[in-house]
């Protein structure tokens, strides 16, 4: 088994016309900006639930009607992925994050004047969700532009924003609620979300070097791009770039990820209720989630650091699969935890597993897709992940209602996540095996002196070999030359 | 109804929930200690004051001193704390009350001038249903009942829930409101504090944060403009040489053992 993992993936550059990512310097400031941006994106839908009880009373709505606010926000945040990808490719990350921050601020401020539940659906759910979507997508993209060798660490640090901000927003929201009521709190929260604009301002576009090879390409390809019709067509083509579905690695990642997302959120939603049902008092049960979040905060950068190491980086897809299996195993063992001490232990391990997966979730996609295709890929992945994310917790809730027992929920989630992880590991072994076979077939082609310096992945080697032999089919359209121009924004 | 307290050497307290007027028999049994006195004196007290003509001498029977009294609890004024006190100081307290509310809200409800607010009140499933609901405002000593006035107060009550909607708030509306769950024997009160503030209060921190954001964004962009001006003025001469050197390096394929990745064109 170890022998299978000991295949060293040959490294290679992603695209021949690519610049060298700075891998440091201003990049770390950009990581701070991404940390803030991603932090708000993931923690706001959860932190808003603190206001729900008061909003429910004032607007006379039922609990499920109120809970839809968070669901709509999350759904729009994920479903807006493709739109966000197109905008990021066209304008670069900085303006998109600034616009996203403005939208979030505006959404919260308008929500504070809300008189009906539908008004809140529109302002918080749709406008707020759009703003967060722009934030998320653009932040991930700019990390992929600034880092390559230290990218797992950068990703881990940026994704750590989610637990850090949740830890900080939850007590802050409680405090604001007591002093200003829910309307004033939403107003102030809107102001705070404008700090995403500051994060966006930090995301300086990467300046490309003046490479004559690049210039030749831009001259050639810009001639193709004369007619407006052609541009519109190619834009539409990129809106939902279905060519991704021909990529084996992408399909494997997508399936594994979908299974993970389906089972990931339900245990969080039901953990307190489960603890209360086991005889733990309500305050201590709520504390379990804080423990999980606290552990998550440190595990994400830690995982990034480990994934960056020489030994793990070439096998990062396997590490991702292992993290998922670990997470699933935690859930399967949870029903055996009856006492509070054991539940605390479960919360700690849950935090570790959850943090590991989320630190790697976008890093692995960047690793598979490479710099140029990542923005479109992430948009496609998020819109597909929308469905399991919305279906997961209600399905789990249904299980609880039918069987009147929480253990089936944990069994289901654990089983789905664990199968997802095992699927990833096994299919990746197959995938890399096939890639090596194809590479061996190409061995007669012009010599590629790939050196094993950074040990990235075999999928990237495959990309380089196909670009060299087939004359760059991975370059989807002439519009790719536009980032060269607009990145000087 | 019958309530018994068994005592040895320590005091005991019991909560008794009452819904209707009832004949209540309270009993205290004190286990004899090593003294084994044949007789011991005891009395009953209500809310700390001894009930007149209640002092008795109790005889020792089966190692126990048994004291019993029948009370007729007719109305709210009869509720309170009843105790049997023995000569050696040991006592049992019976606290007679209507069903209490489970969750008491410790934080005030905050709302805005000219806005409306809904004050909720709930009696849990586990407790008995009240006969009706009433709302009061005031302080602990003097409470005034709130009656329905179409422009100011609206009360909406269900079996276990009641809501008071206060419309067109002013600063005078701030204070403590009491929701009362009415039972045959009395009313349980639940205090809810209402705070009324103007829109300017949250606006101040909001404007503060807005100014901070605008300042930071301006500073970041200014710094960047300055850096790029410095770079373009300095590096214009060096740029051409640097590009040549870069191209040479890439062709040679140098940089062995560095952390940056190598590109073979």
TrEMBL record, chain A:
Region (Disordered): 442-489
Polar residues bias spans: 445-471
Membrane topology: Multi-pass membrane protein
Localization in the cell: Basolateral cell membrane
Regions that span the bilayer: 66-88, 95-113, 119-140, 152-172, 184-203, 250-274, 286-306, 318-334, 340-362, 374-396, 408-430
Gene3D superfamilies: MFS general substrate transporter like domains
Keywords: Cell membrane, Membrane, Symport, Transmembrane, Transmembrane helix, Transport
Domain Major facilitator superfamily (MFS) profile: 29-432
Gene Ontology terms for molecular function: monocarboxylic acid transmembrane transporter activity; symporter activity
Catalytic activity: 3-methyl-2-oxobutanoate(out) + H(+)(out) = 3-methyl-2-oxobutanoate(in) + H(+)(in); 4-methyl-2-oxopentanoate(out) + H(+)(out) = 4-methyl-2-oxopentanoate(in) + H(+)(in)
Domain of life (superkingdom): Eukaryota
Acidic residues bias (residue ranges): 477-489
GO CC annotation: basolateral plasma membrane
Classification via InterPro entries: MCT, MFS, MFS_dom, MFS_trans_sf, Proton-linked_MCT
Family indicated by similarity: Belongs to the major facilitator superfamily. Monocarboxylate porter (TC 2.A.1.13) family.
UniProt-recorded name of the protein: Monocarboxylate transporter 2-like
């Amino acid at each position: 088994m170890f022998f299978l993992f000991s295949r060293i993936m040959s490294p290679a550059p992603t695209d021949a016309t690519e610049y060298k990512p700075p891998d440091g310097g201003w990049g770390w400031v950009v990581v701070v900006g991404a940390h803030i941006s991603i932090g708000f994106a993931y923690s706001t839908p959860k932190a808003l639930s603190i206001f729900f009880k008061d909003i429910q009373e004032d607007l006379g709505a039922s609990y499920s009607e109120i809970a839809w606010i968070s669901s709509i926000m999350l759904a729009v945040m994920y479903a807006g992925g493709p739109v966000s990808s197109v905008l990021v490719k066209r304008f670069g990350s900085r303006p998109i994050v600034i616009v996203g921050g403005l939208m979030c601020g505006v959404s919260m401020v308008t929500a504070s004047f809300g008189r009906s539940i539908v008004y809140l659906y529109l302002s918080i759910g749709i406008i707020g969700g759009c703003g967060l979507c722009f934030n998320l997508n653009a932040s991930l993209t700019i990390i992929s532009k600034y880092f390559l060798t230290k990218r797992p660490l950068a990703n881990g640090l940026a994704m750590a924003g989610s637990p850090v901000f949740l830890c900080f927003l939850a007590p802050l929201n409680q405090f604001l609620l007591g002093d200003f009521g829910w309307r004033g709190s939403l107003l102030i929260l809107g102001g705070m979300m404008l700090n995403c604009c500051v994060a966006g301002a930090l995301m300086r576009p990467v300046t490309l070097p003046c490479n004559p090879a690049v210039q030749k390409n831009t001259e050639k390809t810009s001639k193709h791009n004369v007619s407006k019709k052609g541009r519109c067509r190619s834009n539409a083509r990129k809106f939902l770039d279905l060519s991704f579905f021909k990529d084996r690695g992408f399909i494997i990642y997508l399936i594994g990820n979908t299974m993970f997302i389906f089972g990931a959120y339900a245990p969080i939603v039901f953990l307190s209720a489960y603890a209360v049902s086991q005889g733990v008092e309500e305050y201590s049960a709520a504390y379990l989630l804080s423990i999980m979040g606290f552990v998550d905060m440190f595990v994400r950068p830690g995982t990034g650091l480990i994934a960056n190491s020489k030994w793990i980086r070439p096998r990062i897809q396997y590490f991702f699969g292992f993290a998922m299996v670990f997470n699933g195993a935690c859930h399967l063992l949870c029903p055996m935890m009856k006492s509070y001490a054991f539940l605390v232990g479960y919360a700690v391990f849950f935090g570790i597993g959850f943090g590991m997966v989320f630190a790697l979730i976008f890093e692995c996609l960047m690793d598979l897709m490479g710099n140029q295709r990542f923005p479109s890929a992430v948009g496609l992945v998020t819109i597909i992940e929308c469905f399991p994310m919305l279906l997961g917790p209600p399905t789990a809730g249904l299980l609880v209602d039918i069987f009147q027992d929480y253990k089936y929920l944990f069994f289901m989630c654990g089983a789905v996540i664990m199968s997802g992880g095992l699927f990833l590991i096994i299919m990746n072994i197959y995938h890399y095996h096939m890639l090596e076979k194809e590479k061996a077939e190409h061995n007669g082609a012009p010599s590629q002196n790939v050196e094993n310096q950074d040990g990235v992945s075999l999928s990237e080697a495959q990309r380089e070999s196909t670009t060299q032999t087939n004359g760059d089919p991975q370059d989807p359209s002439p519009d790719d030359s536009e980032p060269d121009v607009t990145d000087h924004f | 109804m019958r309530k018994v307290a068994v005592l040895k050497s320590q005091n005991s307290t019991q909560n008794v929930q009452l819904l209707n007027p009832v004949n209540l028999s309270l009993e205290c049994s004190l286990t004899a200690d090593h003294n084994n006195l044949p007789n011991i004196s005891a009395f009953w007290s209500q809310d700390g004051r001894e009930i007149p003509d209640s002092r008795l001498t109790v005889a020792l029977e089966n190692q126990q001193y048994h004291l019993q009294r029948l009370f007729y609890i007719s109305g709210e004024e009869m509720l309170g704390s009843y105790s049997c006190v023995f000569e050696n100081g040991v006592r049992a307290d019976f606290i007679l009350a209507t069903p209490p509310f489970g969750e008491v809200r410790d934080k005030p409800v905050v709302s805005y001038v000219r806005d409306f607010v809904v004050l909720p009140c709930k009696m849990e499933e586990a407790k008995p249903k009240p006969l009706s609901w009433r709302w009061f405002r005031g302080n602990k000593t003097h409470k005034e009942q709130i009656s329905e006035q179409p422009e100011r107060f609206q009360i909406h009550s269900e079996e276990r829930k009641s809501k008071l909607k206060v419309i067109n708030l002013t600063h005078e509306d701030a204070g403590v409101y009491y929701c009362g769950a009415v039972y045959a024997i009395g009313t349980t009160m639940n205090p809810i504090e209402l705070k009324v503030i103007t829109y300017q209060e949250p606006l101040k921190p909001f404007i503060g944060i807005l100014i901070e954001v605008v300042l930071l964004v301006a500073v970041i962009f200014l710094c960047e403009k300055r850096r790029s001006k410095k770079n373009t003025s300095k590096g214009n001469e060096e740029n051409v040489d640097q590009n040549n050197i870069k191209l040479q390096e890439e062709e040679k394929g140098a940089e062995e053992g560095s952390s940056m990745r190598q590109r073979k064109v």
